[in-house]
Write a structure and sequence with these properties.
It is built from eight helices and six strands; from the N terminus they run H-E-H-H-E-H-E-H-E-H-H-E-E-H. The chain is of the alpha/beta class and 258 residues long. The structure holds farnesyl diphosphate.
Length: 258
């Protein structure tokens, strides 16, 4: 029996959503993976990119619609200069080497995070990845780069305040939907499940608003060891959760017809 069918069966018998539409990944543990082997941190990040490729392939295979990956946080700039340079270099190479394969696999690339202060060559690279794949209809790969959820929410608040100041919006019209519409993720559904590797159990300024009803799966493995089996294991754990969205019972649409 295919893994997808096993997941669907587990979900069906429990009355919970089968496969998640949107999976978000906090790819943590590259440094520890390298340290455990006496290797430089860069080697951990390099192997982390290989794990990212496996994650994208698994997501395509498992017919996930959205995969968001936390590739570089707004706070990561404060790492040592050489490490920042190596992460930027890996992003550059990932887009240069993998864009053609992503495109051939009908993957649409989207980027979230602040773009204003980025070096032009990085900003152009991100724009190119989005433009080349704009019309694709398969997996949407959302790359969170220079991303910080608090910064994203603050920017949304600024945009709404500006609209109020210009008389285009009244304060009473500011509700959760109005805020969601100003986020980088405005047209992306909220994540169903956020998976974090390395055993750490925190969000680290990732998708704070969007995670309101997300399920969390914390895996004890380090990111460079992530593979399809780890993804399937995480999704199986998700499939056993009952999502109630604040209600007493699971919503009708998430239950099996009975
Ligand atoms: C956390 O590991 C991971 C990151 C800071 C970056 C994630 C980046 C990749 C998987 C590779 C780069 C991919 C792209 C597309 C740029 P850590 O260094 O915090 O590990 P540690 O907590 O063990 O030190």
């Amino acid at each position: 029996m295919a893994e997808g069918e096993i997941l669907d069966m587990a979900a069906t018998s429990l009355g919970v959503p089968a496969a998640p539409r949107h999976v978000a990944l906090i790819m943590d543990g590259n440094g520890r993976w390298a340290a455990a082997r006496g290797l430089p941190r860069f080697e951990g990040h390099r192997r982390g990119v290989e794990a990212l490729r496996r994650a994208v392939r698994a997501a395509i295979d498992l017919e996930i619609s959205y995969l968001t990956v936390y590739s570089f946080s707004a706070e990561n700039w404060s790492r040592p200069r050489e490490e920042v340079q190596s992460l930027l270099g890996l992003l550059h190479r990932f887009i240069r080497n993998d864009l053609a394969e992503l495109h051939a696999n009908n993957v649409r690339v989207r980027v979230i995070g602040a773009r204003d202060d980025l070096a032009p060559e990085i900003a152009d690279l991100l724009k190119e990845a989005e433009q080349v794949t704009e019309a694709n209809t398969g997996l949407t790969l959302v790359v969170a780069f220079n991303y910080g959820a608090r910064q994203e929410i603050a920017a949304a608040a600024r945009a709404l305040a500006q609209m109020v100041a210009e008389g285009r919006l009244s304060p009473q019209e500011i509700d959760a939907d109005a805020i969601s519409a100003q986020l980088d993720t405005a047209d992306i559904p909220d994540p169903d499940v956020i998976i974090r590797t390395s055993g750490e159990q925190r969000l680290s300024n990732f998708l704070l608003w969007q995670a309101a009803y997300a399920e969390f799966v914390f895996l004890p493995i380090l990111w460079p060891d992530f593979d399809r089996a780890a993804m399937v294991a995480a999704l199986e754990e998700y499939a056993h959760r009952e999502r109630r969205f604040g209600r007493v019972e699971a919503p009708r649409s998430a239950k099996t017809a009975s």
